[in-house]
């Protein structure tokens, strides 16, 4: 029976992906949550197998892999999905918060893949899917720290693609645009901007609030599943609202023209 392991399934894209794959005959679906409860309490089917995982803990990936390998066997598909957003001017973001963001969004998925690789490589098949972001292909102001973690995961995924290709393991970078999930609570709960960046943060807030077209987590999960199931060696999959069009536009007009145009939309000055 094929096994898929998805991190961060309490809500959003990961949650929808568990529900989607659990409906496919023959799949064992393993999800990670910070606190293990009966799957139904997360809106998941009883068949989903949940493991505790705190991505902010550097020892957690190896411990999780050891447990999963012993109790379930080697996953055929690993989806590094857990992650969160930091929003605000770089100058005002405490170092400790950036470090935690990198731990959760970058170091944790890298360590998880490392822990499973010996078993996957020996088997000679499998998929590593990293949920990066449209923000791994371009950068939004005041998302600099978050977007830089996603750029890191893009570069890492590309390197991994080269390294694992000879062993029959496919690497996929899933790049969602806008998906309506709780990840935006960081923005919804934002305080009124103050200080020298306030006018520009306000402008960006207004721009972001005006983005009304968002894919559902179910749509994003469907596209993610299509990417995972793609047996070609394609690496990058822009998915969900705005991703394909913005990636294409940047390619078409070039980096600087794209940045200047978007800067006007986002910040004005
Ligand atoms: N939504 C979008 O528009 C969008 C766009 C681009 C990329 N993405 C990426 O898509 C992925 C899924 O996000 P989502 O939109 O579905 O958001 P979400 O609903 O907030 O889901 C994020 C998941 O990650 C888990 N997580 C966060 N911090 C964690 C930690 N320290 N340890 C363990 N688990 C942790 C969350 O668990 P808790 O509930 O316990 O916090 C949750 O299960 C993320 O990597 C995100 O960066 C999303």
Structural overview:
The structure is a single chain. The chain has 269 residues and is of the alpha/beta class. It has one domain (3-184, 214-242): NAD(P)-binding Rossmann-like Domain (Rossmann fold). It has nine helices and seven strands; from the N terminus they run βαββαβαβαβαααβαα. It has helices spanning 12-22, 60-71, 95-123, 144-164, 185-188, 198-209, 217-229, 243-253, 255-266; strands at residues 3-6, 28-33, 49-52, 77-80, 126-131, 169-176, 236-239. It has a seven-stranded parallel beta sheet with strand order 3-2-1-4-5-6-7, sandwiched between helices. Helix 1 (12-22) packs across helix 7 (217-229), helix 2 runs parallel beside helix 3 and helix 8 packs across helix 9. The protein is globular. The model has no long low-confidence stretch (mean pLDDT 97).
* Number of domain units: 1
Query: Level of helix content?
Result: 40-55%
Q: How many E-type strands? A: 7
Which ligands, by name, code or SMILES, are bound? NADP nicotinamide-adenine-dinucleotide phosphate
Provide a compact summary of the structure.
By secondary structure, this protein is α/β, with parallel strands linked by helices. It has 9 helices and 7 strands, in the order E-H-E-E-H-E-H-E-H-E-H-H-H-E-H-H. Helix 4 (144-164) links the parallel strand 5 (126-131) and strand 6.
């Amino acid at each position: 029976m094929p096994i898929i392991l998805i991190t961060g399934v309490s809500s959003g894209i990961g949650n929808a992906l568990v529900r989607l794959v659990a409906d496919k005959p023959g799949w064992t679906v393993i999800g990670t949550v910070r606190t293990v409860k009966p799957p139904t309490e997360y809106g998941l089917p009883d068949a989903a197998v949940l493991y505790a995982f705190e991505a902010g803990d550097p020892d957690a990936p190896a411990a999780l892999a050891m447990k999963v390998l012993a109790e379930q066997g080697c996953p055929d598909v690993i989806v590094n999905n857990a992650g969160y957003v930091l929003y605000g001017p770089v100058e005002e973001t405490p170092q400790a918060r950036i470090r935690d963001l990198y731990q959760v969004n970058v170091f944790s998925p890298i360590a998880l893949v490392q822990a499973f690789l010996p078993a996957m490589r020996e088997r000679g098949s499998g998929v590593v899917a990293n949920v990066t972001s449209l923000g791994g292909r371009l950068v939004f102001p005041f998302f600099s720290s978050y977007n830089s973690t996603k750029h890191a995961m893009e570069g890492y995924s590309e390197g991994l693609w080269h390294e694992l290709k000879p062993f029959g393991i496919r690497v996929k970078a899933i790049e969602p645009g806008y998906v309506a999930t709780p990840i935006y609570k960081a923005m919804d709960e934002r305080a009124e901007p103050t200080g020298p960046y306030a006018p520009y943060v306000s402008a960006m807030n207004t721009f972001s609030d005006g983005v009304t077209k968002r894919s559902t987590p179910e749509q994003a999960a469907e596209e993610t599943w299509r990417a995972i199931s793609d047996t070609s060696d394609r690496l990058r999959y822009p998915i969900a609202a705005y991703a394909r069009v913005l990636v294409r536009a940047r390619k078409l007009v070039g980096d600087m023209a794209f940045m200047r145009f978007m800067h006007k939309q986002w910040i004005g000055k």
